[in-house]
Backbone:
């Protein structure tokens, strides 16, 4: 019985996931949840809750839009040839003095709680052996459903 229930669950999830073989776009849609990850996604500053770093290029992976029970997450990944300290300075200015920041192991994370239901986090990292040594920027804008 347990095997049948697990098998049915896997079958339902597999049927809910759709991947476009030509573009690499993936979608998941089940009651109460949807997710879209497309390498060609475009984002606005409004969707991300902060500006996109000037001249930054979208990464081919690491970006998505997701909604779960009225809450949403928009996450976008970018690359720039500018050094980490310049990117960190830009986002500290954009997120304001109330933003928190952590730095460890070459990674900087800046977080701004905009209100009780909304938060923006920016992760900035640079590794010589990844992405041709370019600085990676990951912006995540989370909005919780009201009353959650």
Residues:
């Amino acid at each position: 019985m347990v095997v049948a229930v697990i098998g049915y669950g896997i079958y339902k999830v597999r049927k809910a996931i759709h991947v476009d073989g030509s573009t690499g776009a993936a979608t998941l849609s089940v009651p109460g949840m949807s997710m879209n990850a497309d390498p060609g996604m475009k984002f606005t500053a409004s969707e991300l809750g902060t500006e996109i770093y000037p001249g930054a290029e979208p990464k081919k992976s690491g970006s998505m839009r997701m909604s779960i029970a009225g809450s949403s997450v928009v996450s976008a990944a970018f690359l720039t040839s500018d050094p980490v300290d310049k990117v960190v300075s830009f986002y500290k200015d954009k997120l304001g003095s109330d933003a928190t920041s952590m730095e460890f192991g070459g990674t900087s994370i800046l977080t701004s709680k905009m209100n009780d239901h909304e938060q923006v986090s920016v992760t900035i990292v640079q590794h010589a052996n990844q992405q041709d040594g370019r600085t990676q920027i990951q912006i995540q804008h989370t909005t919780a459903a009201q009353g959650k």
